[in-house]
Structure formats: structure tokens, C-alpha cells
Amino acid sequence: MASSPPSSPQPSSPLSTAPPSLSVLELAPVIPVVVVDDVADAVPLARALVAGGLPAIEVTLRTPVALDAIRAVADAVPAAVVGAGTVISPEQVAQSVAAGARFLVSPGWTDVLLDAMKASGVPFLPGVSTTSEVVALLERGVRDMKFFPAQASGGTAYLEALAGPLPQARFCPTGGVGPGVAPEYLALPNVLCVGGSWMLPPDAIATRDWARVEKLARDAASLGPGSH
User: Which residue among the candidates 26, 146, 184, 215 is catalytic per the annotation?
Assistant: First the structure.
């Protein structure tokens, strides 16, 4: 039996009232990485995440309905800061922003993709996994980055090593990050948030158990240094 989505009033988007300098990385300790297969799930799922304290929601462009899902959330859930993930082309940048995406996330970057993201007018997190990529982005004036695939690319030890020579770079690690290791990442000075999908178990989505999603989101929102 499906649980009803949260019925409490949805506040306005945190980015709409925040200082212009506020980064997507600073909205919550966890950015849910969402794969939407049925567009009808997008709005109740987003409401559950927001009610649980996770306003920044990355909808990945891995399914045919992803852009429609972003559009639905942008229209119906003003408290959500919905973004597009797995953005790998200038065309996807344009399509995502047109659908209402408030931020963009890529698994990696090229000069062409970076130029398109910079021209989009919305915040973006280009993906990196090497020191040279980090230095190249800093050279281009970009300091907020996605570290992907985090666990496979050296995990917390790698990011801790980068903090000394490159303290200006700030990261959102994703890829293999779960509730067990998330506090270790969040304890690092150069990590502001992590990305993951553990608060969206497939069985909860399949049964539309939005109350469970909200509970898991609340648990994720409470993660941070010392929360082992």
C-alpha cells in the first residue's frame, strides 16, 4: 500500500532567499542522486526528500522521462532545488535549464562542456577524478566540483591529500558513497556535501512508500562529522 506524500506546506526554495554567493554544495550534507523511471513519481518523491531536509535534488539524465521529471518538480515543488545530473553535452545543458534545472552536474568535463555549463547561468559541478583535472578547473575559475567515482578514485584518503596543496577546491564526492562512509567524507575540510541514492531504495520507489523515503532523507540530512 502506498504511503501518502508529506502534506505539510512546502517552503520556498532555499536558493531563492539565500545570498548570491551560496553554493549548491552548502544546502544540505547530502544531495540525493535520483533516477526517475515514471514521471508520476517525481513530485511525491521530491516532496518526501524536501520534507526530510534534502532540498537539493539531482535528477540524472539516464531515463527518457528525466527532463519531464525535472520540469514537474520545478513546477510543483518550490522548496526543491532541482538539478540535472549526468550532463555530458551542450545540448543537455540547454535542455536541462529549459526544463527548470537549477544546477548541473557532470561525471567529467571537457572544454566544450565546461563552456556550455558556464554560459548556462546556473551553478554547476563538473566531475573530476585526478589532480590535473582539479588544477585545470581552478585555472578556469571553477572551485566547486564533483569527485567521481569517489570510492574507486581513492576515497577520503585522496581528497585529504588534495586539501593541503589545493585548499581552494571544494568537493561533492559521489560514487559508492553510503551512510557508513559519508561522515568520513563530510569531516574533511574540502568536502561540503556528498551525493548518493541510499535514501531511495528501489523497493520503496516501487511501492511508492514516500514516508520511508522521507525518513531515510531525514537520517541522511543529519549526517556530518562525528555522526558515526
Answer: 146
- Give pLDDT tens digits for 66-77: 999 999 999 999
pLDDT digits (tens, 9 = 90+) for 156-192: 999 999 999 999 999 999 999 999 999 999 999 999 9
**Burial degree of 7 (CB within 10 A; 0-12, 13-18, 19+):** exposed
214 classed as catalytic:
no
Residues 6+ apart with CB under 8 A from 157: none
d(CA 31, CA 221) in angstroms, rounded, equals 9
Contact 59, 85 (CB under 8 A): yes
**215 catalytic residue (yes or no):** no
d(CA 172, CA 188): 11
- What does R_g of the chain's alpha carbons equal in angstroms? 17
For the record, the C-alpha cell of 194 comes out as 556528498
Q: Contact, 196 vs 30, CB < 8 A?
A: yes
Distance in angstroms (rounded) separating the CA atoms of residues 122 and 214: 27
